[in-house]
């Protein structure tokens, strides 16, 4: 049995499986819950599972799909080995587990080809040398007093009270 344990909060892992089954069986795995059943785990996000015949990739191939489509770096991929794979495959991304731990117990007709990691975004950068990028380099605007607005609002309130009072005095 080729059990696989998925760590809680696993991110950026792409699993590639070969589907050793008839095309109609493989196509059926696209139905809701079918992939979960053959992987032996419930609660997967179907949007994070791709099931397709390798021939659909045409010139792109599995290498291009994993590299360009899934963000797997080329140094993790064996182009020759991936080119030799035909038939149907399943690609399972970490996001399918919703950050929960799991144990995969794949059906005997599902064979793990590879486990790859997506390239992480590099958020580092060099300092920007321009003057405008320096802290506090923007022109400072003077603080505008809001005293005139307060006085105007106070006058409007006083006038409204006087008008209401006058109207009530006339009604009596």
Shape: elongated
Radius of gyration over C-alpha positions, nearest whole angstrom? 32 Å
Strand content: 15-25%
The percent range for helix content is 25-40%
Classification by helices and strands: alpha+beta
Tally of contiguous helical segments: 5
Counted beta strands: 6
Largest sheet, spatial ordering of strands? 3-4-2-6
Overall mean confidence score, pLDDT = 90
Please describe the structure with a list of short key phrases separated by commas or semicolons.
four-stranded antiparallel β-sheet; 5 helices; two-stranded antiparallel ribbon; elongated; 172 residues; alpha+beta
Describe the structure.
With 172 residues, the chain is α+β, with helices and mostly antiparallel strands. The protein has a domain at 4-117. It contains five helices and six strands; from the N terminus they run ββααβααβββα. It has helices at 23-28, 34-39, 61-69, 79-83, 147-171, and strands spanning 4-6, 13-19, 49-53, 88-93, 102-104, 110-117. The strands form two sheets. A four-stranded antiparallel β-sheet has the order 3-4-2-6. The longest helix has 25 residues, at 147-171. The mean pLDDT is 90.
